[in-house]
Design brief:
It is found in: Cell membrane. The chain is mainly α. It has 13 helices and no strands. Helices cover 76% and strands 0% of the residues. Helix 2 packs across helix 13 and helix 10 packs antiparallel against helix 13.
Amino acid sequence: MSARSPRRAARTRLQVFRVVVLVLTGAFFVVPLLSMLDFSTRLFNADGRTGAAWALLVADPLLRGAIGTSLLLSLLTVVGMLVLLVPTLVWVRLRVPRLGRAVEFLCLLPLTVPPLVIIVGLTNVTAWLSYLFGDTATWLAFLYVVLVLPYAYRALDAGLAAIDVVTLAEAARSLGAGWLTVIVRVVVPNIRTALVSASFISIALVLGEYTFASLLNFDTLQVAIALQSKSNAQESVAASLASILVAALLLVGLSFVSGRRRTGRGAVAAGVAPVPAGTAPPVPEEPR
């Protein structure tokens, strides 16, 4: 009994420490958000609250168009990133593993170059993109794919390192599958969590990107928020808070979907687990 008491006391202190850290961390994130909500709904000339700033998020044509542009750019960036990186990384692991370091260097290179330098260095490229696609912000997705490469590469590389890609590909090829089938129906389902992580990182970066769009004179969400802050600070803060909440909800949604699929796949794998040689297969119990 005397030996359990110090152990129980230590466990209690650890639980208290965890709760304190959790509360302080939550306050660190929640207090600024509550302050933003308070400022965006405050009436400065009278008592009470107003939702006028939040209503402008839908009524203001500049902000509404900027939100649509940023969401479209997020979708195009995710698609471009997955189409570029997934086949490349799978092919490097299967066929040319000696190029793995070179591909890693190229993918991480944008992390070391400031966005302003990237824009200046890609002046000719942006001129050609503007000439080919016109005065539309959609071609910014090509630049955003370069911007998200370092983060998406890390997520996808970790997912591929967690599975035996070579064995899976050889097994599928021995059954007559083509390379497209190997990638789409064998490799991709096994790295679904990595795909979700890379997609979320890309969406978060695109929704928060300001330098590229501002220097190229496109009205994305962050550019519109910066412009609105000069004329209507409450609307700007409301838009900032809304973008944070949307990103948080997106993270929770993607994590929930990924968790449900992983749980379902784990249950199926347990149900079809191979029986060791020399042992009788389990007999299901009859319902009583």
